[in-house]
Amino acid sequence: MMEEKDTELLSRVTANHLFLAQFEPFRATLLSLRARNPELARAILQTVVARGGVFDSVLWSQSCSSPALLTYLSTLELLQFNDASSIWSFDTDTLRLRVEFLLLVQTISSRVSESLRKKIDLEGIEKDVDKLESQDLRPELITENEELSEFNGDSVKSLRVLDKILELGLNRLKPDLVVVDESIGEGSSGGVVLLDEAELMCLRTVILENADLFDVLCGNIQKQVWWVEHDDSGLAITLRREEKRSEEDEKVLKLVQRSVQIAHLDAMKECLKESDVEGVISNICFLHLDYGVEENEYRMVLQDLLKRVLSGKAEYGDIWFAMRDKLLSVYGEALSSNCRHLVQMIQVIHDELLSEEIEMFRASENNQNPPPFERLQSFKAELKPETNLDDKISSLNMAICHCMRDMYHYTRVSGLHVLECVMDTALSAVKREQLQEASNVLSLFPRLQPLLAVMGWDLLSGKTAARRKLMQLLWMSKSQVLRLEESSLYGNQSDEGSCVEHLCDSLCYQLDLASFVACVNSGQSWSSKFSLLLSGKEPIGYRNEDACWDPFVENFVLERLSVQSPLRVLFDVVPGIKFQDAIEMISMRPITSTVEAWKRMQDVELMHMRYALEFTVLALGAMESSMTDETGSHHQMAFCYLKDLQKHLDGISNIPRKILMVNIIISLLHMDDLSLNLTNCASPGSHSELSSTCTGEHEDPAPYEEGNKMVVSYTGLLLDILRQNLPSAIFEQENTLSSNITDGRPALEWRTLNAKRFIEDWEWRLSILQCLLPLSERQWRWKEALTVLRAAPSKLLNLCMQRAKYDIGEEAVHRFSLSPEDKATLELAEWVDGAFRRASVEDAVSRAADGTSAVQELDLSSLRTQLGPLAAILLCIDVAATSSKSATMSQKLLDQAQVMLSEIYPGGSPKIGSTYWDQIHEIGIISVTRRVLKRLHELLEQDKPPAIQAILSGENIISSSKEFHRQGHRERALAMLNQMIEDAHKGKRQFLSGKLHNLARAVADEETERDYMKGEGSYTNRKVLLNYDKDGVLGLGLKAIKHISVSAAAGENNVQP
């Protein structure tokens, strides 16, 4: 019982707070009642909501000023209960939507009432205006006071329509899950509110004044209609009367939506008539294509609006910026309407207008650039030069941004890609050689500038000036700046350059190389300030007014650079390039990777190799020229060239290349007349540079010393340079060789070993050269020194024997591992020379008193043991004829040879076998040796005969040569006759006629000689024979003599009287 009393008491308190419009106390008591009787508390709230907060005698307060607000607040509390919508056929979401609808209509109605109340107060009409605030008393007040209707009929009509809409909202909150009598239901209208479009159009002014509230109201209606159309509650019991009322309500609600849209469209049309674009735009956010109005109505209004907005799209300026802001406002308002179809319609209309503009552009004659680019060009052309730089840059950047935005729309509507369109336009400008225009086009996408520079390169074939300007505009002056400014955008520094940018660097380098060649070809000096690569952002002063460079040269170099390396092209077209210029041009070559860096290092080494060879040739050529130069300048130049050779060899770090260079220089040392090709390898100006620098750091006192010391010093310096550039040991080669050339290590070791042997051999020969002097007791000349340095070991041994340097000869025998014959020759020559010296210095009186001879007996048994009898015989003849300085010593040697010859002559017949031809060869040598010995003995049998060496060198003339000739012919004829007789006895009769012919010829030779002696021959023949008699001692062909041709002799005969 106690609980029932408490519940009853709380119910009464709740009702009191309700009629006092005290919602917070009302809510508090409901919460207490809910704790005791939840069903009762829920029923109270459901009753308040179902009645729409309309109760008699409610004292409305500021915290709860209207029934709609009370209903809304009560709904919020009701939704906290379980099964809150138990008396309705719809769910809680629909309940909330219907309550919100009631609150929105009440709010709009209150605003209209408040506006009307203010107007009544201003006009001073004494009426009970407070009744306007009451929904129940408002119709009575309007009906009783005709003056009020006449004063503001539109507002009054609006209030009536709003009251009907409010009544509709109240009816939609009534409970529909109740059982009623069918007769009663059919006899009543069921609270259906009927409104037509004409009545709702009275709200036009109210709709525009409260557009935001009506927009929310239409959104609420849209949600309610959607819930009705998609209602799947599945309730089995619904009254036909409720279904009919729901359909009627839905029609009225949709009619409200349509009226709101028509009101906004009419307002937009009026604004368009008045050219109030801002007013039109302000209504776009309230448009919605799903609110019952045909799309054509929207389309007509929006199309007129966009035409007005886009009419200011002439050029980039203040008008265009205003147009852009208006267009953005149109899209912004459309997006705020939360209607996707509206945004799409505006975009379609916009695209149609752009398509019309594009068609007009294509139909025009000047259609080279798309309209956005034309506007950008016009904007840049109209920029005033006196404008502040910062303002100009800001305006230009803004225009570029807008042009880019227009280009996106242009390409989108045209069905193109924006980058493709930009590149096509830029390439077209490059083809017309409008390079600045192309640069302006690519200001939209600066990163495309390297690509355009590369693609435009081929479009400007043969036009080097245009190519240079293209690279300067698109790569150096723009892209490089962009790359520096945006370098922070890259995560890795190595990722900054793309392959296209590297290609641009390569093309700039090719232009620099071509300009260098053209400059050198025209005889002018080239400076790095002409370089595209090194100029950076600064403009380059490429040509002066007096420069007349042949474009053919530049194009020729560019064509070759397209298929050949810069190093090859540079040295092919400028063979006389200076080293400093060459290293500067090669160092400018852009590096794109570690491989490119390695290639450039290889190029630099190849340059060092090239100049090393050049200075080697120059140094050797200068030494050859020094033979005819008495001033000594060539000696100085030769030493300067060696200094430069050393520098270039030091610049080669690759060990195999150093070995190659040393071997090439060694090969050059074996060549003569290198000075003949100096003009092909010497650099222009090299001689002057070297002559000026030799007086400074290259100055060396050694070159100024005359004669032997100069040649020795030069050769020693050259050998030192070669030795320093060879690896010190094999392991050094192994450490420096890469795995790619390990297979070539044996070849490198072999070349290194040969080079070291050559250097050691020449150093030894150089020491010999210091100990020897030429025959004429003068100093060595370069070619004479080369003869000694290049001489074969046997010739070097002969030179030592001729100069009586037997100790050096013995060293040469051991050094070169000469044959035993050479060693025996040296020993015999040394004995002969020693014997001659002893014979010349001993006192002749002593010798006569003692009866002894200074010439000691010679024991040739050791020589014969070492060489064999035939070789020992030939050695004695050789020494007697060439080394012996006295006839006595020659006679002694010839006697020894005769003794050894008698031991082996005549010998046996040759035996058939593998050595048959060797035996025949030995027999022939013995026969010739016997005749030579006989002839030499005859020369020494004369009275006071000279040394055989003097006879053979032509210093002495033999007077009895004619008799010797005749004796030789007789012996020849007798020998032939004896041989024929012997063959006849043996039965050998083959070739007898030929042998008889030879015998007759020998006899005829003797008769011819006799006629010559009698003076019967011609003068010419006698002179030839006399010449033979003068120089020949052993017969024709055994000694190289100065022959006088028969034709020359005949010429002399013709000249004489």
UniProtKB/TrEMBL annotation:
Domain of life (superkingdom): Eukaryota
Name of this chain's protein: Uncharacterized protein
Organism for this UniProt entry: Davidia involucrata
